[in-house]
Amino acid sequence: MKALTAAIAATLMSTAAYAVTPIGSEEFNIQPGFELAELTSENFYDVIVPQAKEEGKLTFFDFTNSFGPLFTDRLLPAFEEEYGITVNYIRGNNEAAVQQLIAANNSGVAAPADVYFVGSSTTGLLLRENVMANVPLADLLPNADGFNQDIARVSGGVDHGGSYVPFHRNQTSIIYDTRTVSGDDVPTTADALLAWAEANPGKFVVTSPAGGGSGNGFMQSVAYAKVEGDDCRAEFSNFSMTEDEAKAYVEGACLNPVWDYYKKLIPVAEITNGNSDTLNLVANGAGAIGTAWEDMAYDFIGRGLLPPTVRQQIIESGQVGGGDGMFLPVGSEHPAAALLFLDFMSQHDIQLEKLGVNGSRSARTDIDPGKSFTEEQAARLIPTNEFAERALPSLPAPLRAAMRDYIVANLLRATN
């Protein structure tokens, strides 16, 4: 009897240890109609599936232009077929949807959607306005167990504690056209890229840090490559950094190697105002090497907008990635269906299909496109070993913004 009592107690303690607790507060900021404090990843399906089916529907907001066919033709029908839950799919502007959600919350009315897929640039605002449910989805969703747990808790340089599910990962890269630069000759370090640009003026196409995400990502990657010293590099992971602290850091000596790099690079590179501009210059042969987003280049090659001879790499010191995610809003009218939807979109097969269709990477650590894709598909992506070993997290949002502003004001304008 004592052994049985002890076993029951141990089971209860184990369950309690995995019960979710509010992020950054003593209370949950949502009232879903079921007891969140008793919900665990172990009992998730037993509790959520029946209630989600009873709710019967949900509204899903998508801010993207490129994911529409993936959702309408593949993912949403698969979810509806598996659970019998109807999805009302709406698309629109990222910032407008966030402002609409904030206004609804301030007015005390229901959220316009039950699940939001929005850009990571809005994560800080969502947290400040308290419209993102403070539920640690990284701990609660059974399929979130497959995520890189650092990525599952920090997005766009903002620590959200796991409330923002990393549905889409994007990775900055260097693209090169093998008709001009062979794989054996392509520069594989930041310094080698600069030397190649100096030897081949105008052929290295770099998106401006203010004109497109790949340019800002390259700027951050140069910082990873050039900044030395533990004190200087400690700020790369200081996600509590304020705007004033970021400006002070930028004005200090730590980033001088980055400014020196750009002073040499800007006169010999072709600086563009957008990601598409960079890819188009490589496509028409005006450039041979360029900064890029992996998923965008993957898509361009697949649609014939870039030649099939284009390949992608991550330089040896690493390049930053980012990503956009989904969240449960405060005021969701169908919270159980929303939680089930978020878990469904996190599973291995869904994330693999997303990569194959859109070139959209996953925060999951168990996906290897080399084992599942055609040779042509795999060739459009960054090599798997490079992605696994060289992908870096973005710098804190205030820091990368201050670095961008410094380059625009002091280096780009100085050359115009």
From TrEMBL:
Protein origin, superkingdom = Bacteria
Which InterPro entries does the entry mention? SBP (IPR006059)
Signal peptide range equals 1-19
| Entry-linked SUPFAM superfamilies | Periplasmic binding protein-like II (SSF53850)
Gene3D superfamilies named in the record: Periplasmic binding protein-like II
Q: Which UniProt keywords apply?
A: Periplasm, Signal
Instruction: Please state what the protein is called.
Output: Extracellular solute-binding protein
Please tell me the species this chain comes from. Answer: Nitratireductor aquimarinus
